[in-house]
Amino acid sequence: MREVRWERMFPDELEKAFSECPVVYFAYGLCEPHGPQNAVGLDALKAHAICCRAAERHGGIVAPCDFWHIHELGGYAVWSRQAIGEVERSWLTCMPPWVHLKDVCYHVRQADVLGFRAAILFTGHYGPNWEDLKTLVQLIQPYVGTRLYSLPECEANVPGFDGDGASGDHAGKVETSLLWALMPECTDVSRLPDRETGAAPWAMGRNAYEASRRIGERMVEDEVAWLGRKAGELLEEYEKSRPPHTLRTFEDVERLWEEVVRPHVPEFRSMQLSWKQHEEVPEGSAWYANWKVPERA
User: Fold this and answer.
1) Number of domains comprising the chain
2) Domain that holds residue 109
């Protein structure tokens, strides 16, 4: 299988891959508790691996994976207290929305500088961060020649797999099956707790016992096909207008952030104290320190 990972390719390999299919995949995720049965890097591991399979099958280059993502504040802190609990160490690799999304702008700038005609921004991390990523793409697309599309991994997971219509979860049947298929060394179902106890520790999905590698392989195939179709659509869109690649300097990015994106940051879903009414984190909780979004953000 040919190499598609940007960081592991030689210059001549990159040039050849670019000439054949000028599409770049950006994979996002973080280290986060995903039950005792999965490696904590599940989100980014699955996203990057699926992007690599899509590039191997359909062409393109996969950018280095970004393991730092939105967590620990607002609704994420509320969820963490409920699903992870009052732990001493969460093993998160998290950052606030205004840092992560600005980093994404710099990633897009590099795609534009290099002349990629299409870029797919693929996050394996669930929660409202993916809605913010879509909003970000909508805001910056008019200023970028590269045609952009962002999505959470579950959007490419065709509903109806295995007859139950599920498309996403957290460390349950879906995510455990996906990681099991993609990186079996990172899933160990023997670590699942006794099913009879009813406990779901370390943010484990309660239907994780239903996971299987076969189901995961089916989902991976569906997602790889979906990404290939989307990449083709973006290339066709680029060819229709041949927009100029204008996001070229660091100053361009800083100006775009300050004038176009930053005014909307307070409205982003990830910035909200709660995703539902009347949810909050009490003082004394391990998740209280970063729950309230600072006014300067």
Assistant:
1) 1
2) 6-271
Rg (CA), the chain: 19
User: Does a structural domain hold residue 204?
Assistant: yes
Q: Which CATH number belongs to the domain containing residue 213 in this structure?
A: 3.40.50.10310
Residue 289 lies in a domain: no
DSSP E strand boundaries for the chain:
23-28, 61-62, 69-70, 94-95, 118-123, 147-152
Q: Does 278 reside within a domain?
A: no
Angle subtended at Cα 4 by Cα 60 and Cα 34, rounded to the nearest 5 degrees = 100
Q: CA angle, corner 106, sides to 2 and 6, nearest 5?
A: 10
- As a whole number of angstroms, the distance between CA 142 and CA 145 comes to 8
Q: Is 40 helix (H, G, I), strand (E, B) or coil?
A: coil
- Rounded Cα distance between 31 and 154, Å, is 18
User: Tens of pLDDT along 147-186?
Assistant: 999 999 999 997 654 445 457 899 999 999 999 999 999 9
For the segment 181-222, what is each residue's pLDDT rounded down to a tens digit? 999 999 999 999 998 877 789 999 999 999 999 999 999 999
SS3 279: coil
What is residue 144's three-state secondary structure? coil
Dihedral Cα 261, 263, 267, 271, nearest 10 deg: 80
288 lies in a domain?
no
